[in-house]
Amino acid sequence: MLVPLLQRVLAVSDSATLLTVRTVLCSVTAFALMLLAGPWGIRQLKRRFRERIASDSARLDQLHAGKRDTPTMGGLLILAALVGSLLAWGDLTSRFVQWGLLLAVGLGLLGGLDDWIKQSTRRKGLSIRQKLLGQIGLSLLVGLGLQQQLGQHPGLLTVHWPWGGGELWLGALFCLWCMLVLTGSSNGVNLTDGLDGLAAGCLIFCGLALAGLTYLAGNRVFAEFLSIPHVPGAGEFSVLLGGMVGAVLGFLWFNTFPAEVFMGDCGALPLGGLIGLGALICRQELLLIVVGGIFVAETLSVVAQVASFRLLGRRVLACAPLHNHFVFRGVHEVKIVIRFWIIAALLAIAGVASLRLG
């Protein structure tokens, strides 16, 4: 851990200044690690794990035939860069950071098992039930820890309406609420990860917004100014999210069209879980619906598609999730991805700005 060295070099003891510098350094370090180790890591993945195009749609498989044999499980590289940078600049005694690492590693292992089954057998990975049970179990464990941590401070076991006030006390139900948020955000990112650079780019904007929100929530002055819950220690999670953003940005260097590597479930599941955990820590779960609006839209498109087919016998989209609908309509992949990035950036800005307006 390089924090003591950083204090001596900067000759500052102000905690807010150190937190800001550590967040930036964690992000830059993760980005550098990803860029430096990326080519070697991709070569290793190419030897062992290559994408197998086998969806439930023959037409989609045909459209994505060119992606076959692209190295996958790049999420392992993202997690390695994140953990490496966090070991250098993070405070590992922070409970929030500890729960974040547990969630990231746990969901990474779950996603890695799913990816490994796809690569080594003819199966399409874990069943939906198996994957959900794993996510639910891990989310409940993290939720219990978070409930114990936040329960030490009055008013933090509530759902806050971010625009104009309003609260709903959860009490003992907080753990179940954590399970819903963490599982939903994890699956939302996983569903979005279908085009080159799509999930990674959207994660960067959402992660930046949540890094800012956790930083603000951990500072009493800023929290009072914005009329948001003050969560002691929440600012430390901004260091972790900063590292996540840096690692994903470095990964995007290799993941843009035409992708040299895919993140796989071992990347999408833990990264989605981390943005959900960030929203829970700063008590802005409802605001996550806005700043992570792309992930919400992708999830709802799948729900709508399944519900429409089962209830009405017809589909509302050409293909779900939403990005595949536009692929079927003949829109070029790059145009879809960049437009989704633009929307993700606007939603992140609008979400954070709405706190002050509210």
Please provide a written account of the structure.
The protein is mainly α. The protein has one domain (3-357). 71% of the residues lie in helices and 2% in strands. It has 15 helices and 2 strands. It has a two-stranded antiparallel ribbon with strand order 1-2. Strand 1 (158-160) and strand 2 (167-169) form a beta hairpin. Helix 5 (95-120) runs antiparallel to helix 11 and helix 7 packs across helix 11. It is globular, with a radius of gyration of 20 Å. It starts with a helix and ends with a helix. The mean pLDDT is 91.
Biggest sheet layout: 2 strands, antiparallel
User: Can you give the mean pLDDT?
Assistant: 91
- Major sheet: order of its strands? 1-2
Structural class label: mainly alpha
Count of strand segments? 2
Strand and helix order: HHHHHHEEHHHHHHHHH
What's the helical proportion of residues? over 70%
* Range of strand content: under 5%
The general outline is: globular
Q: Work out the radius of gyration.
A: 20 Å
Give me the number of helical elements. Answer: 15
Runs in which pLDDT lies below 50 for 5 or more consecutive residues are: none
Number of domains: 1
Measure the end-to-end span: 39 Å
